[in-house]
Predict the structure.
Amino acid sequence: MSKRKLKKYLNEIDKDAIEEQLLDLYDRFPEVKEYYNFIFNPKEDKLVQEAKTKISNEYFPVRRRRPKARRSVAQKFIKHFIKLGVDPHLIADVMLYNLEIAQVFEKNRNIPDAFYKSMMNSFTEAVQFISINGLLADYKKRIVKIYTITEEQNWQFGEGFSRALDIID
């Protein structure tokens, strides 16, 4: 159904029917419930803290022995936050936190090449997001620090990190 047809349909039915349908959507679909819960009670700081806890648990697990170190966990949170409309400052903070915790994890470990490529992609996305949202003044120090650590630890794909950094210059 197109947006135009939906508008026409909504104009044709009465307010009570629309309320009933919205309540039905709220009950049936967890995404709708989560959206309305966020809109009416946006506990952004709590969401960000939960995300950071789960991201750090990927690299430094509390309950299991071996770390999974999956970038996808952080990416899911970031995409979800963007979809919900979380403040860009908080999204940028989570993006950079993911990179910082990954750097702590990587130190003195034998890590596969895919990890470095994945982190390069995360770095590029973070720099682009921060640049597009005009947050460079707030996060430039953290970005430069992350880049410096990648150089000091001689991370693979260094030229990719360098190209990402060129965006802010």
Remarks:
- The chain has a mean pLDDT of 90.
- Residues 105 and 111 are 10 Å apart (CA to CA).
- The two ends are 45 Å apart (CA to CA).
- The longest helix spans residues 113-132.
